[in-house]
Give the backbone structure.
Amino acid sequence: MAVPGRARGPHRVPVKAMATLDLFSPAKINLFLRVTRKRPDGFHDLASVFQAVSFGDTLGFDPLPASATSDTLTVSGDPELEALPTDDSNLVIKALNVFRERTGSQTRYAVHLTKRIPTGAGLGGGSGNAATALWAANELSGRPAGTDALVDWAADVGSDVPFFLSTGTAMVTGRGENVEAMPSLPPAAMLLVKPPEGVPTPEIFKRFSLENASDADPEALRREIERGVYVDGTTVNDLEAPAFAYLPKLGDLKARLAEAGRQEGLGYTSVFMSGSGATIVCLGADGVPELVRQDPELFRTPATFLNRPDDAWYADPNET
Ligand code: C5P
């Protein structure tokens, strides 16, 4: 039936259907992290198993009309996180700029970020958002690039960005640009806990000293992790020493969480720091110890490992 007042046929004003895309943007943890060398370029060589997790942000992408000359980025979620920069210094905008430079695309986007991942957490929040933006821009442009090209471009945005274009579990080496896909790992629940303070990654790397690093062979650690042996001997993190020197209460928090896990029979098989901190991962179970329940200042969330199929982005685990 014709709708009164609406012109039909040739008089109808064409409304171009613009595709929009809402994507989950997972956080990551490092199941182990060895720092093997300080490089002449100031970066450090790593050997680390990265794992995406079911906790994360959401990003919405709306292509803007051709007349738009810049992207827009709005942020909602945690009020403290809404203060994130929304200009070119935000990794999402950097990623979109890199995508346009490499592909010649002119499309600008209105991006909306629902932020849940704390900053300065070692959870790769900004890096994951950047990888999600590369994936989204590629999808909305008719997939001009393959995943290998996206991984390549991701390294120009930040060291941790390439990992997020894997299928969720990967051995990462070099500065972060070598991403070797691994099969999904035996599943494990976890509780992530972070003090209100964040830690700045460059500062932690600056304080890293090879003398305090583990001598465990990364390949041996990887084999144990592949078998699901998530114990303190396999979840080593060479950045704990400099991070705990920078923020002593973080070392205390790790020790208190491990002790509480034992005392309260919570079933954590290992308690360790993720990335350059300041998140402590209680792996093996997601029960919340009393010390966390009683401290409203501590960020906490349960999570599980998250993987994506070869041909699709990470599904939002909060949507059934
Ligand atoms: O690449 P991204 O901007 O995330 O790195 C932030 C800082 O962390 C670098 O400037 C460097 O100081 C340090 N870093 C490092 N080695 C890495 C990754 C980061 O020294 N593999």
Observations:
- Residues 1-17 have pLDDT under 50 and may be disordered.
- The chain is about 25% helix and 25% strand.
